[in-house]
Amino acid sequence: MRISAERMDEIIDYAKGYAHASIGRRVEIDACKAKIREIYRSRSPIEPETYYGWIGINPPPNSINIADLYDFTLANLPYEKYAFCVEQHTENGIRPHIHALVKTNGNTRAGHQITRLAKIYDISNNYIEYSISNKFELNKTRFSYIIGEKTPNKLQYVELDKKTRELLNIPQYYSIL
To answer: What domain range is 71 assigned to?
Structure first.
């Protein structure tokens, strides 16, 4: 059973409200949130001892909008198993980009994947980042990043991206992992 990022937020908000009403102590709220996140992460689609590629595609400024980037990625990402999200709000302004986690094998060369993706997206290699890992916790963290779990300094951008995606009818993330 998978829980959507939106449902997870509802569960946490409910738990926070319940803890405030019945207990009123911040420590228990944090413990409750941590337990819910632990349960949620335990249901991650990430498999142990499996290689995943972590991809960042950052097209040149003003070259594509977020809706077109989502549609293009959905139609052209050349992997069988993957999860990705599109974002555009950054500390430097609006810049549509994607984060993707793709199932791969240990023989995959990052340089080859960068060249391949650059051709597909018709951009130069320097607009693409690619790294490979079979570290279970790292790949779970990367998946969590895609579904919107970010560091506190990025939460304002996460909220803006959520609103933008809702307005444009774009899913918060897409996964076939």
So the answer is: 52-175
